[in-house]
């Protein structure tokens, strides 16, 4: 299959991450429940829940670290001790010194990564186990191993570096660790690809085709040498020749949120605001990235706006909650959502005040719920791939 930048497929969020094979979730030992009880959470006023959250934070003090991703809603992110993009949050988990528990306000793969990178005595919790990532669910170990096997019939797999975007399950990170591969995030994908090409001549990049393509394009890899691997088709839908001449084999996955931004949104925005600059996340399609002025991770987007002079006009192509927060925090600039449609990460949004209060209060009562635990073998090999990434940076 030729590399078609805009091609994607519709995905229904299955929430498979809830049952990711590599992770076990602990249910409440006294209550025996896995999901939020109605009483005394769902029906409680926000003010009361805020007070209860603050009370647990005070009680657990340094033993508790709440990490929050930038896409979290305001009512939740305000309780994060530290916030960041996926890369920064991995570093924070790896560097955490005093805490015994990390409550992760983000999605499942982030909590898994925190479990892998934090000290052995730290337990990681995800307030709602249904907070998965539809992109991470587009690649699974079985399909990647099958692709690897198919590729081994055509090329020397010792000359392929598997690179997984951090938005993936721990067993795929472990696959990369075992095969001399590495993890990347949206803020270091270029450095990681350089690392990979310094060692081997080919890369298998999963699960986000757009991040892989957008990054490899900055390194002048031609599109013809970036076939897309569709796991549902023989040879991923490619000819043997196109795979033999490939340099980056892109998994057919995408972010359902970022793929909604279209190049015509950029054109329309520029027409409305001729002095504007367009700032997008690299999970957007290649055409959107090419039409934009600046591209980078959520942390990059935030820093760019923070450093911009008053009067700047931005069209921003990333998740809605972050764009709205930036607009609120920088009233001296014009900050607008790039798309006329709502592009919101519904799974990030699952972390809300009731779930956070439930998770924290059970932790304080010593009846923890929703622990995310990666088994030791998977954790070992995924740590290998994650450490390679942290060293690259
Ligand atoms: P970053 O936090 O690395 O920018 O990635 C965004 C994202 O999609 C997280 O799921
Ligand atoms: Fe996954 Fe996209 Fe949501 Fe990020 S924004 S967590 S990639 S679905």
Give structural notes:
The protein has 393 residues and is of the alpha/beta class. Among the domains are: 138-251, NadA-like (Rossmann fold), CATH 3.40.50.10800; 258-337, NadA-like (Rossmann fold, 3-Layer(aba) Sandwich), CATH 3.40.50.10800. Helix content is 40%, strand content 15%. The strands form 3 sheets. Strands 1-15-5-4-2-3 form a 6-stranded mixed sheet, with helices on both faces. Strands 7-6-8-10-9 form a 5-stranded parallel sheet, with helices on both faces. β9 (228-229), α10 and β10 (248-251) form a beta-alpha-beta unit. Iron/sulfur cluster is lined by residues 107, 133-135, 167, 255-257, 283, 319, 345, 347-348.
Would you summarize the structure shown here?
This protein is α/β, with parallel strands linked by helices.
Fraction of residues in H or I helices: 25-40%
Largest β-sheet summary:
6 strands, mixed
Outline type: globular
Number of helices: 16
Strand order of the largest sheet: 1-15-5-4-2-3
Strand residue content: 15-25%
The average pLDDT is: 92
- How many runs of DSSP E, i.e. beta strands? 15
Class computed from helices, strands and strand pairing: alpha/beta
Could you tell me the radius of gyration in angstroms? 21 Å
Distance between the termini: 33 Å
Any idea of the CATH topology of the domain at 138-251?
Rossmann fold
Residue runs with pLDDT of under 50 for 5 or more positions: 1-22, 24-32
Q: Which architecture of the domain at 138-251 per CATH?
A: 3-Layer(aba) Sandwich
Bound molecules: 1,3-dihydroxyacetonephosphate, iron/sulfur cluster
CATH class of the domain at 138-251: Alpha Beta
């Amino acid at each position: 299959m030729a590399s078609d930048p805009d091609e994607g497929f519709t995905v229904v969020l299955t929430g498979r991450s809830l049952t990711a094979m590599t992770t076990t979730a602990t249910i409440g030992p006294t209550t025996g429940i896995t999901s939020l009880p109605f009483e005394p959470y769902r029906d409680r006023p926000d003010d009361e829940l805020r007070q209860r959250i603050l009370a647990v934070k005070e009680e657990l003090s340094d033993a508790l670290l709440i990490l929050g991703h930038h896409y979290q809603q305001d009512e939740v992110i305000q309780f994060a001790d530290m916030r960041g993009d996926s890369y920064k949050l991995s570093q924070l988990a790896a560097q955490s010194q005093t805490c015994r528990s990390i409550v992760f306000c983000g999605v499942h793969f982030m909590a898994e990564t925190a479990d892998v990178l934090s000290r052995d005595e730290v337990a990681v919790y995800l307030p709602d186990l249904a907070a998965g990532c539809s992109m991470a669910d587009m690649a699974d170990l079985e399909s990647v191993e099958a692709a690897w096997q198919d590729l081994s019939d055509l090329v020397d797999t010792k000359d392929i570096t598997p690179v997984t975007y951090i938005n993936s399950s721990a067993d795929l990170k472990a696959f990369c660790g075992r095969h001399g591969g590495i993890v990347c995030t949206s803020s270091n994908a270029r450095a990681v690809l350089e690392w990979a090409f310094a060692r081997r001549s080919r890369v298998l990049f999963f699960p986000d085709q757009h991040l892989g393509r957008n990054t490899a394009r900055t390194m002048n890899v031609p599109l013809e040498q970036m076939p897309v691997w569709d796991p549902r088709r023989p040879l991923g839908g490619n000819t043997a020749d196109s795979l033999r001449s490939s340099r980056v084999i892109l998994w057919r996955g995408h972010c359902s949120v970022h793929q909604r931004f279209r190049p015509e949104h950029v054109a329309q925005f520029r027409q409305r605001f001729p002095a504007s600059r367009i700032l997008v996340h690299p999970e957007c399609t290649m055409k959107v990235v090419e039409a934009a002025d600046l591209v980078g991770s959520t942390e990059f987007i935030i820093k760019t706006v923070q450093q911009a002079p008053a009067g700047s006009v931005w069209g921003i192509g990333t998740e809605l909650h972050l764009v709205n927060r930036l607009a609120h925090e920088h009233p001296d600039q014009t900050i607008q959502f790039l798309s006329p449609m709502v592009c919101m990460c519904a799974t990030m949004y699952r972390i809300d005040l009731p779930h956070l209060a439930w998770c924290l209060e059970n932790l304080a009562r010593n009846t923890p719920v929703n622990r995310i635990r990666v088994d030791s073998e998977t954790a070992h090999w995924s740590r290998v791939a994650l450490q390679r990434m942290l060293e690259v940076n």
